[in-house]
Write a structure and sequence with these properties.
Blueprint (H helix, E strand, L loop, with lengths): L1 H17 L8 E7 L3 E3 L7 E2 L5 E2 L4 E4 L4 E6 L2 E2 L3 E2 L2 E4 H13 L44 H9 L6 H4 L2 H6 L10 H5 L4 H17 L8 H11 L4 E5 L5 E10 L21 E6 L8 H13 L1
Antiparallel strand pairs: 1-4, 1-6, 2-3, 2-5, 5-9, 6-7, 6-8, 10-11, 11-12
Length: 300
Amino acid sequence: MKVKCRIFIVCLMFAALCNLPCIADEIVTVFTFGKIEVLTFGEQEWAFLEKGFVLVEKDLLRMPPDSLIRLQSKDGLLPTLPGGRELSVGTLIADAKQMKTAPRAKRINLGIEHRPMSDVLPVGRPTASLDHMDAEGKTRAASVSGGELAALRMELDALPEEIARLIPELEAYVEFPANEKDNQAELRYPYPMLNRAQRLYESVSRLVAGDLAHHNPALLYGQVLRRSGIEADLVVDNTGTLLCVFDSGIPLESAKRVAANRALIQEKGQTDTVWISVDAQPHKQNFTTAWYEGSEQIAN
């Protein structure tokens, strides 16, 4: 009987260990620049990543556009990579290994999302067209007055038919959770509302890059969000730049489930949920960069 009990206990311990990340797969953060966030596998709240932090491949990282990171894996020290994206540690390592194994002469031209890099530091952020740059080198957008903002808000629920008929095609590209009403989906990042908004942003880029380039991207994104069941609105920053904001559906008291960086979290009116501000330029940037830049513009 004692032998059977011991065997049973060993089996339980082995089963428990099978659900834990393997120690051999751990990755150490050796260098960071910028407010990089990490969502540790199995946890619900984001935290800031620091040097010496031990990661596993299933952890998620959210990196500001100007951030840098360098990791050490079991294969040795990996190249420094740029930010402006949200991805798993495993995907980041795959990018780094691709760069590390490239011929040295080609490394400076091997970019991630069109950003050139060397084997030490990224060369810099992608540059915008000179036709849209101001004296400070920042992208310049047309200023929106208070009257124009009111008129644009009235169009949020008036999605043009030429776009409305494309909604099924847009959603066909979107990877939604198998059951968005499932309680487990509500507890897993990125959560139904935020996941839907992220994926739709990527899909809207297909429209903006095509025949609908003449539409205001912030209004278009807001219209698509509204049509897909997400509460969205339009705001302007202190420079008159038009931004889209949407409701993540996450209570403000649980804001760390969305971000550790409070600058990425907006409050709106009498609502008690986390709102996300987006500088919608899907033909130029991904959702993560749009989120950071939209938040910066509201903060400033």
